[in-house]
Write a structure and sequence with these properties.
Chain lengths: 423, 310
C-alpha cells in the first residue's frame, strides 16, 4: 500500500499528468470541432464536371438531377448555410474514333484542376473519372442523381409523363428508430425514439476515446518509469524491505488509482458538458458501472504487462521499443471500432469483444450502442477478463521478480515466457 | 524455529547463474550483535551472498536462515540493506524518502526518526531538498540512513565507505558502532583491509564463490603463522635468493619477506648480517591485506593448493 501511495502521488503530481488531463480532451475536442468547422465551410470553388454521353440522350437529364440534388443537399436545412460546393457542367461530345485519347485529355484537365472529374455515360453503364481520395463520399452522392437521370429518360421513353415521373420518383426519407420496449413499472409499451448519428456513433466513440485515453495515460508511462528505476538501481534497496510481489502490486494499484482519478474527472466533466448542451439523455448511463469495471481490469492487465516488461529492459531505449506491445490490447480494438459499431451484433464484433484482451473496450462500446447486446455477453466477457487479469498479473509478477535484478542484457521473448510460466 | 545466537546461518548454500556458480557450497554462521566483514576480490560472490541473506535471491541448494527463519517465512523489515549498486528515488525530498523507507520497514514515528538521523549525520538542513540536488557524498549518507532507519536487527552494508570523505566516513563508522552497541548485527563488505581489521570482529573471505577464510582476525593471523619478516637493510638486493626466503615485497623503506614453511627467521637474520648492514629487523604476523593477496593475488594460494591436490 505504501508503494502504491508513493507511486500514485509521484504519478498524479507530475505536470505531465495534469497537462494531459486537460490537453488530451482539448486536442480531441479541437480536432472534432475543426472537422465540423471544415465540413461546414466547403470550398466555394464550383466543382466543374465534364459529361461525355455516348448515347446522346441521358446527359441533360443527369445534369439536371445532379443540380437538383445539389440544391437539396448543398445547404444546411436550418441555417441555410452552404455545406457543399456547387456543381458546374460541360457537355462534351464523345470522340467515337479515339475514345482513349479523349479520356486522356479529360484526365489531364482533371490533373490540371480545370475539372473536378468527368462522367462517361454508356447505354448500360456510367463511369466516373476523378482524382480519387477520400472515402468515396462523392461517388456515393453522385450515384443517386445519375441513376435518377437515366431512369427518368427511360421511363419517359416508355410513355410516362413528367408529372407522373416526379410523383413516382419522389424521394422518401428513411427514419432510423430504436426498438420498442415495455416499461417494467407500468407495463405499457414505450414508443421507440428516433435514432440519430449521435446516438449510433457519438456516444460509443466518445466512450471508447475516454477509455483509451484514461488507460493509456495510467499505464503507458509505467514501462519507461520501471525501466528508469531499474537503470537507477532503485529496486534492490527496496527489495530488502518489500517483496517483489508487493512492489509490482503497489505499482499496479497506483496505476488503477491514477486511472480512477482521471476517469472521475472526465465523467463529471462529460456530464457537465452534456447538461450544458441539453443532451444529457444521450449519456450511456447504464454502461457506467461496466466502464469502471472494465477500466480497472484493463489497467491491471496493461500495468502488469508494462511493469514486467519494464523490469526486463536493460535501458530506457529498450522500454520505448517495447511500448507498442503493451498497448496492443488498446490499439487493436480501436482499429476495428468502425466495423464493430457498424454491426455491433455481428459475428465479427461479438467474437472480437469476447476475446479477453479486447473485451474491455469493445464490449463497452457495443453495450453503449442504442440497440444494446444480449445480456449474457458482458458477463461472459467479464469472466474472461477476470481470468486474463489474474493469469497476466501472476505471470507478470514472476517475470518482474526475476527480471528486476537481471542487468546487462534484455531477455528475449522465449526467456520472458519461460520466466512467466516456470518462475 | 529456534535460533541459537546466530543471526544468519548458511548451510551448504549454492547459487548459480546459468553456467556461473556465484556461491559454492557456502556454510557460515554470523553471531548476533557482531560486526562481520566480507572481503574478497571483485566477482568472488560477496554481493550474491548478501542478496541471499536479504532474500532478494533464493539459493539453488542449501538453507539460508536469518534469525532462524528461512526466506519464505522471513519477516520483511527486520533487515536494512545498503547495496553496492545504489539507487534511490531522485525526485523525492530527503525527508519524504527516509519516511518512505522507514514506513516500509514498519517503523512508528517515522518522521521523528528521519529527523533524528538527519541531525546525527549533519544533514538536518537538507531535509526538504530533493535528492537530485545533493552531492554524491551527501546522497550516500542519505542512502545509509535509508538502510539503517528503524534500527533493524540486521544491517547489511555493501561497501558503505566507498567514495566518502574522511569526515563522512567517520560519521558513518560511528553510526555503525552505535547500532552494534544497541545489539544490531552488522554485515559489512569492504575492499579496504584497514577498515576490516579495525571494525570487524569476524571476517569471511570469499574467492571464486567459495569460503576461503572465516574467523576472528586473530584466528586468521594465527593460521598464517609468524612467517613474515620485515627487514630494513643497506643493500636490499642481497636478500633475493637467500635460503628460507619465499617471497619479497618491496614496501619502499623496508622489505617484507614471506618465509618458507619451517624456515628459521634467526638463521635468516644471521645470513643477512654477513652480507649487508641491517638497520631494523622484526618478525610480524601477516596483515589482512597480505593474506588477501596471498589468497587472491596472481600467485594465488588457492590455485597452488588446487594444483597440488590435482
Amino acid at each position: 500500500m505504501l508503494i502504491a501511495k508513493r507511486d500514485y502521488v509521484a504519478s498524479v503530481r507530475t505536470k505531465a499528468f495534469l497537462v494531459g488531463l486537460l490537453v488530451a480532451p482539448l486536442l480531441f475536442g479541437g480536432s472534432f470541432l475543426a472537422s465540423v468547422f471544415v465540413k461546414g465551410r466547403p470550398s466555394e470553388q464550383a466543382r466543374r464536371v465534364a459529361v461525355v454521353d455516348a448515347t446522346g440522350k441521358f446527359a441533360a437529364a443527369v445534369v439536371d438531377q445532379i443540380k437538383q440534388q445539389s440544391l437539396r443537399d448543398g445547404f444546411d436545412q436550418h441555417t441555410g448555410v452552404r455545406v457543399m460546393p456547387p456543381y458546374e457542367f460541360e457537355i462534351v461530345s464523345p470522340d467515337a474514333s479515339n475514345p482513349d485519347a479523349q479520356r486522356l485529355a479529360l484526365s489531364n484537365r482533371v490533373r490540371d484542376k480545370e475539372l473536378f472529374g468527368f462522367l462517361e455515360i454508356e447505354a448500360t453503364s456510367v463511369e466516373w473519372y476523378s482524382n480519387g481520395g477520400g472515402f468515396g463520399d462523392v461517388e456515393r452522392w453522385l450515384a443517386r442523381p445519375v441513376s435518377d437521370g437515366l431512369e427518368r429518360v427511360r421511363l419517359r421513353e416508355l410513355g410516362v409523363s413528367g408529372e407522373q415521373l416526379n410523383e413516382a420518383l419522389k424521394p422518401v426519407p428513411l427514419e432510423s428508430m430504436n426498438l420498442v420496449t415495455r416499461d417494467p413499472k407500468t407495463g405499457l409499451v414505450v414508443p421507440a425514439r428516433k435514432r440519430g448519428m449521435a446516438e449510433n456513433f457519438a456516444a460509443p466513440f466518445i466512450l471508447a476515446f475516454l477509455f483509451f485515453m484514461i488507460v493509456l495515460s495510467a499505464s503507458a508511462p509505467m514501462l519507461t518509469a520501471v525501466a528508469e528505476d531499474k537503470a537507477q538501481r532503485v529496486f534492490e534497496m527496496l527489495l530488502a524491505s518489500a517483496g517483489p510481489f508487493d512492489l509490482i502490486g503497489g505499482k499496479v494499484l497506483a496505476a488503477v488509482g491514477t486511472a480512477l482519478t482521471s476517469s472521475i474527472f472526465y465523467v463529471i466533466a462529460a456530464f457537465a458538458l452534456l447538461q450544458v448542451l441539453a443532451i444529457v439523455g444521450l449519456a450511456p448511463v447504464k454502461v457506467l458501472p461496466w466502464f469502471f469495471l472494465y477500466l480497472v481490469a484493463e489497467v491491471i492487465i496493461l500495468a502488469s504487462l508494462a511493469t514486467a516488461l519494464g523490469a526486463a529492459c536493460s535501458s530506457t531505449r529498450d522500454a520505448e521499443n517495447l511500448k507498442l506491445i503493451t498497448l496492443l490490447p488498446l490499439v487493436i480494438p480501436l482499429l476495428v471500432l468502425t466495423p464493430v459499431l457498424q454491426e455491433p451484433n455481428g459475428v465479427f464484433a461479438t467474437a472480437m469483444s469476447l476475446f479477453p484482451l479486447f473485451t474491455p473496450l469493445l464490449m463497452l462500446v457495443r453495450q453503449a450502442t442504442p440497440g444494446g447486446i444480449p445480456a449474457w455477453q458482458p458477463w461472459v466477457g467479464l469472466a474472461g477478463v477476470v481470468v486474463a487479469t489474474l493469469v497476466i498479473s501472476w505471470m507478470a509478477s514472476r517475470i518482474f521478480r526475476l527480471a528486476i535484478l537481471f542487468q546487462g542484457k534484455t531477455p528475449n521473448v522465449a526467456e520472458l515466457v519461460r520466466w512467466g510460466v516456470a518462475g | 524455529m529456534a535460533f541459537h545466537g546466530a543471526s544468519v546461518e548458511f548451510d551448504g548454500v549454492t547459487k548459480r547463474f546459468e553456467s556461473v556458480t556465484a556461491v559454492d557450497d557456502l556454510s557460515l554462521s554470523i553471531p548476533e550483535g557482531s560486526i562481520y566483514g566480507f572481503i574478497g576480490p571483485n566477482g568472488s560472490g560477496k554481493t550474491t551472498t548478501m542478496r541471499l541473506i536479504t532474500g532478494i535471491l533464493l539459493p539453488d541448494r542449501g538453507d539460508v536462515r536469518v534469525y532462524g527463519a528461512t526466506s519464505s517465512s522471513r519477516q520483511l523489515g527486520s533487515i536494512g540493506y545498503l547495496p553496492e549498486e545504489r539507487g534511490i528515488y531522485k525526485k523525492m525530498t530527503v525527508r519524504a524518502l527516509l519516511r518512505f523507507h522507514a514506513e516500509l520497514r514498519g517503523v512508528r514515528k517515522a518522521a521523528a526518526q528521519a529527523d533524528a538521523w538527519l541531525e546525527k549525520l549533519d544533514l538536518a538542513k537538507f531535509g526538504s531538498s530533493s535528492i537530485e540536488t545533493l552531492s554524491k557524498g551527501m546522497t550516500q549518507k542519505v542512502q545509509f540512513i535509508a538502510a539503517a532507519i528503524g534500527e533493524p536487527k540486521l544491517l547489511i552494508l555493501d561497501e558503505p565507505f566507498s567514495g566518502l570523505d574522511p569526515v563522512s566516513s567517520q560519521a558513518i563508522r560511528s553510526a555503525i558502532l552505535e547500532l552494534r552497541g544497541k545489539g544490531a548485527t552488522i554485515v559489512l563488505s569492504t575492499h579496504d583491509m584497514g577498515t576490516a581489521e579495525q571494525m570487524c570482529e569476524r571476517i569471511l573471505m570469499m574467492f571464486r564463490g567459495k569460503k576461503v577464510l572465516d574467523g576472528t582476525l586473530m584466528d586468521i593471523r594465527d593460521r598464517y603463522g609468524n612467517d613474515t619478516v620485515r627487514i630494513s637493510a643497506e643493500n636490499a638486493a642481497c636478500l633475493a635468493g637467500l635460503p628460507g626466503v619465499e617471497q619479497i615485497r618491496d614496501l619502499g623503506q623496508m622489505q617484507e619477506i614471506r618465509m618458507a614453511r619451517d624456515a628459521d627467521p634467526q638463521a635468516l637474520l644471521r645470513n643477512v648480517m654477513t652480507r649487508t648492514r641491517v638497520d631494523s629487523f622484526s618478525i610480524a604476523r601477516p596483515s589482512l591485506e597480505d593474506i588477501f593477496i596471498r589468497i587472491a593475488g596472481a600467485d594465488s594460494l588457492v590455485d597452488r593448493l588446487e594444483a597440488q591436490s590435482a
